[in-house]
């Protein structure tokens, strides 16, 4: 049987893509948590054409609610 091996996105170590690697695509829980922390700190993001910035008018008001 041919096993697929991918690189851990955090450290680059080879990871077998299968049930033997419960944290795939990461090599271990530590690398998985490092990656999660980078997303939480907004060091990583998904690119978008419709970028919002701090100066744009948006809020979490309910639909139909008058602007403040």
Automatic annotation (TrEMBL):
The gene is yacG. Belongs to the DNA gyrase inhibitor YacG family. InterPro entries: DNA_gyrase_inhibitor_YacG, Znf_NHR/GATA. Interacts with GyrB. Residues 44-68 are annotated as: Disordered. Zn(2+) binds at residues 8, 11, 27, 31. Keywords: Metal-binding, Zinc. Gene3D superfamilies: Erythroid Transcription Factor GATA-1, subunit A. Binds 1 zinc ion. Inhibits all the catalytic activities of DNA gyrase by preventing its interaction with DNA. Acts by binding directly to the C-terminal domain of GyrB, which probably disrupts DNA binding by the gyrase. This is DNA gyrase inhibitor YacG. Its cofactor is Zn(2+). The keyword Zinc applies.
């Amino acid at each position: 049987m041919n096993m697929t091996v991918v690189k851990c996105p955090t450290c680059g170590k080879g990871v077998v893509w299968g049930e033997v690697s419960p944290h795939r695509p990461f090599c271990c829980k530590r690398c998985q948590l490092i990656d999660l922390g980078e997303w939480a700190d907004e060091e990583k993001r998904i690119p978008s054409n419709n970028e919002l910035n701090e100066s744009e008018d948006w809020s979490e008001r309910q639909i139909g609610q008058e602007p403040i």
